[in-house]
Amino acid sequence: MSYVVGISSGAFGLVDQKEKQNLMTITRKIFAGGLEGVNFTQVDLEAITEFNEPNVKENLRKIKDLGITFGFHGEFYGGSERPLEMLDSAIEADYYHSHDRLVRHIEGCGDLGGKYVNFHPSQTTPFIRLGKDLQPTKLVDPWGRPMKKFLEENKWLKDWIMEEDNEFLWEFMHTTPKIAIKSWLRDEVNDYKKQYGGKEPSEGEKEKLKKEVIERLKEAFINRISTSDLSYGPERVAYYIIAKWMQKNNDSLWNSIVGEKIKDKDLTKRDNFQKWVPAVSAKYILGHFQPKNGLDNPSKLMEKHKIYCIFECEMGRGGTQGMSRIIRPRDFIFLCQAIKSKWAAVCIDFEHVLSQNIDPKKEIESFPPGAAERVKLLHLGFPTPHVPAHMPIPLGSKEQLWIYERLYELRQKGMDDAWMIFERAGNPREQVILVLRLIKQFLEKGIAPKELPLEFYGIRPDGPEMRRQELAVREHALDPLKGLFSVPEEEYTFLGTAAKNKGKAELWGKERFK
Length: 514
Fold this sequence. Notes:
3 domains; single chain; elongated; eight-stranded parallel beta barrel; two-stranded antiparallel ribbon; alpha/beta; 19 helices
């Protein structure tokens, strides 16, 4: 494949009124890329209903006959519901909704012949903010099964839930294990006294009653996370449980992303969220691609349609930069490796990376050798804190060089082929296609940034720009010598006095035409 230059179509809901006519259908969106001088278009999908537009397959056959190919950006515009971007949710309703949307995207984009479908899999509420809003308490494990079933398979976790150090698990129960056990045991002792005429139970009988209380509390806890009550941030409970399970089982995602054991009491520390939450988030996303509960398997659909499923970190938004559950391209690479499908890949958008308070250069440096082979899509624009910017890259600019440097670093880490897309949203294009073609040309040759010739910046050694600059240099080359000669200076060359008397001598300065 090598590197393919393309442009995004823009979204009907974002462009000016005069441009909307060109983006009314998928076919027109794809052809809009052809009008920009490229033969690859990323279709900005605004709703899966676009798959059903009249005559879409017939029209796309004509587009393909022109040599135009295309990929898709999953639906992202309009409305407050974004199920495709909630693949790491542990809330049952969200899990099934997002899985259904994922399958529909892969089927729809693959059926139309798209090369990839790209989306942000984690636009869920940041973990650190989960206690602020009400959520249903019906929780599922990473494979979408009831959390109750998961705990039955891992009975040691039910004992772990009852430990006093893990009181953070009980917030949505409005109690703690210690208080609940003490209260329920007191009631059991009182009932015992009533039954036996005021007789105190022996120590052995008290211990037996305590064990019964603990088992009943376990069931009460499990029942609470199996019903659709409302509570503040119960999803945190699922994440804590899965984090403990991943550590206990030496999970590969935990080892790759976290790389250390975190004590139970430290799971809730604010400074630790960004260490371990991405691993659990990745585990939930992975579960959608390795379903155990009878759901459609996206991995098989990707293989069937030969279509890449490409993960991209979401844009950091005001006040929550760096708080999303999984944001690092490096972590998405580990996720793709765990999916174990060559059709699972990563998109890097430098603007998104910076908006999450991550240094793109340092992030690339953190990639293991060869890891960037999973990077198949690049959304290219110079990263700026003013997101969403999507501004064109000026020809011959420092921005052009900066982007080339990052892509060269990715190439050194294994990125041998990728789609290079200017994701324009609704912005103008200017010279950006020319810039991307120059980047592609020299990147494929493997030329190091410090060895880039003037052609990279759009300047040919024999071109008019160089000739103009050479002429300007020649005109002023002798300026420093003026006034230093000990003989009369020649001002009028061979034209002599006649030219001087007619006022024409100034047009024929000696340095310019001698």
